[in-house]
Amino acid sequence: MGTAQLGAASHDSIRPSRQSGIMRRAALLAGVEECWPIVVGQHEVMIEQLRQIHALCLKHEDHGAARLVARLIDLRDESPDEFWDLLTSNSVWGGAGSLADQCLVESGVHQESELKQDRRVLWRALAEIAREMVSVGRVNERTEFWASAFRKWLREGL
Question: pTM to 2 decimals?
Answer without folding.
Answer: 0.70
